[in-house]
Amino acid sequence: MNPRLSLLQPYPFEKLRRLMADITPVAGLKEIRLSIGEPQHATPVFIKTALSEGLSGLANYPSTAGMPALRQAIAAWIGRRYGISAPDAETEVLPVNGSREALFAFAQTIIDGGRPDALVACPNPFYQIYEGAALLAGAQPIFLNTLPGNGFNLDLQALSDAEWGRVQLLYVCTPGNPTGKVLSLDDWRELFALSDRHGFVIASDECYSEIYFDERQKPLGGLEAASKLGRDDYRRLVMFSSLSKRSNVPGMRSGFVAGDRSLIGKFLLYRTYHGSAMNPAIQTASIAAWNDEAHVIENRRLYREKFAQVTPIIAEQLDTKLPDAGFYLWARTSIADTEFARELLRQYNVSVLPGSYLARESDGINPGANFIRIALVADPAECLEGARRIAEFCRKL
Q1: Helix (H, G, I), strand (E, B), or coil: what is residue 122?
Q2: Which residue in 320, 268, 287 sits closest to 102, CA to CA?
Q3: What is the DSSP letter of 59?
Q4: Label partner for 210 (CA 20 to 30 A): which of 138, 294, 322, 352?
Q5: Domain boundaries, the chain
Q6: How is 145-161 classified by DSSP, letter by letter?
Q7: Alpha-carbon torsion (186, 183, 201, 120), positive or negative
């Protein structure tokens, strides 16, 4: 048995299940789940149609590199979305079965397991896949706190030069989960300088990039930042994106990686052995999704309306505000986050995720402690009712 499996911690939702195991919610109130970030808006009909039309491809083994038409659709979307020259569809783009599996597998490609002192840096709070990927690749995760006093920026000063010299891979998440923080061009300039100095690879998780609130202010992406800073070769940078949130198709498991062609080539080699080719029908549906923006604009409108209604209600009672992007509210609690979540479920049948479950203790603190993550993924009426219940609960504390 791989001994590194014993290093893995329970997933946040397993911790939540255990936390709530003895809770019986009050009778008479419908359950409202604001704990898990699973998109619940309707999947566009044209994507379902394209999926069914792609079933004829099931008689053939799919290529790990994906259909040329899919890679071209992704490359063209990157060019349109970020206003840059489209990356080369043959060498700088690779379809993946959702960003989650790619974020994990990428570490297995990058990390030199022969170095016992190898580090993987990631934000804190963070997406737990980063930690698991590091541990199972033979590296040690090291955490960069993102705190409200610092505008939820990465604390890059937390690591010494010697520690940065041991970092082989840095995960960033922009827009961030759970804070919604978007990295600025100055942030990217600093990250690229560190990467140049120490030689580590940057994995930019951008799966929330298409959920934002002002059509005139799109979140900056990693490839876009690199292009603006004269790094058109995307050296030591790979971005990860997905259709799950953008197009409301989490069950399709469809995304892509794009960036440094040398890294993409090695990742393709790894995936060829890993058996990670995308289902042909999913590829056909993905082409249709990447080629259409109208449904994405409508999706953002729904989120914008929900946040406009819900944020003021919760902000009257908890320290929170509209995030830069994404579909979470990150709210500070007046009592322990776990106790807040338990009593909210018991008294009002609303589930939220304790922030401490999304973080690890670093520099003597857990930066998720006394925060909750509220996922506004349900329909507007349900989110609004959930917000009202949270506000009423807070008034009684």
Answers
A1: strand
A2: 268
A3: G
A4: 352
A5: 3-42+295-396, 45-292
A6: E--GGGTT---GGGS-H
A7: positive
DSSP per position, 258-305:
EE-HHHHHHHHHHHHHHT-PPPHHHHHHHHHHHT--HHHHHHHHHHHH
Q: How many CB atoms lie within 10 A of CB 3?
A: 6
pLDDT by residue (tens digit) across 276-299? 999 999 999 999 999 999 999 999
Per CATH, the number for 45-292 is 3.40.640.10
The pTM of this model reads 0.97
Query: Could you tell me the CATH superfamily of domain 3-42+295-396?
Result: Aspartate Aminotransferase, domain 1 (3.90.1150.10)
pLDDT at 391: 98
Work out the percent of the chain whose per-residue pLDDT is above 70: 100
Which residue type sits at 124?
N
Say how far apart CA 184 and CA 32 lie, in whole Å: 35
Phi, psi (degrees; rounded to nearest 5) at 35 = -95, -35
Distance between CA atoms of residues 79 and 328, nearest Å? 27
Question: How many helices (H) and strands (E) would you count in the chain?
Answer: 14, 12
Q: Which residues pair with 119 in a beta bridge?
A: 140, 167
How many Å apart are CA 356 and CA 31, to the nearest integer?
A: 23
Q: 258: which 2 tokens?
A: 């794009």
Distance CA(273)–CA(64), nearest Å, equals: 9
Half-sphere exposure of 60 (CA within 13 A, CB side): 12
134-156 pLDDT tens trace: 999 999 999 999 999 999 999 99
Amino acid at 156: L
